[in-house]
Amino acid sequence: AFLWDEGNIDKNLKKHNVTVVESEEMFMGGPFVATDPAHSTKEEKRLQALGKTKSNRRLFAAFTVRNNKIRIISIRNMSKREERAYEKLEKNS
After folding, report:
1. How confident is the model over 42-69, as a mean pLDDT?
2. Where are the beta strands (DSSP E) in 36-93?
3. CA 55 to CA 58: how far, in whole Å?
4. Most buried in the list 6, 8, 12, 44, measured by CB within 10 Å?
């Protein structure tokens, strides 16, 4: 389940042209997730994910989990470096 509120429901559409549907699809496909210690706090752990949508759009997401729901902070197309890392992870999984 996802947590969408006024702060994040359309921010990524405006900023990165990523829809809510694409955001959720990325997580349904079994993304590769890592912790983000640089942006985590004692109160809230931040995570990063690399994954793709049903149409194979490759996305990078920064997110947290609140009340057992995914709250996306930012989601955008992968950078070239992230794409290379994703391909390596996909190949080895």
Report:
1. 95
2. 46-52, 58-66, 69-77
3. 9
4. 12
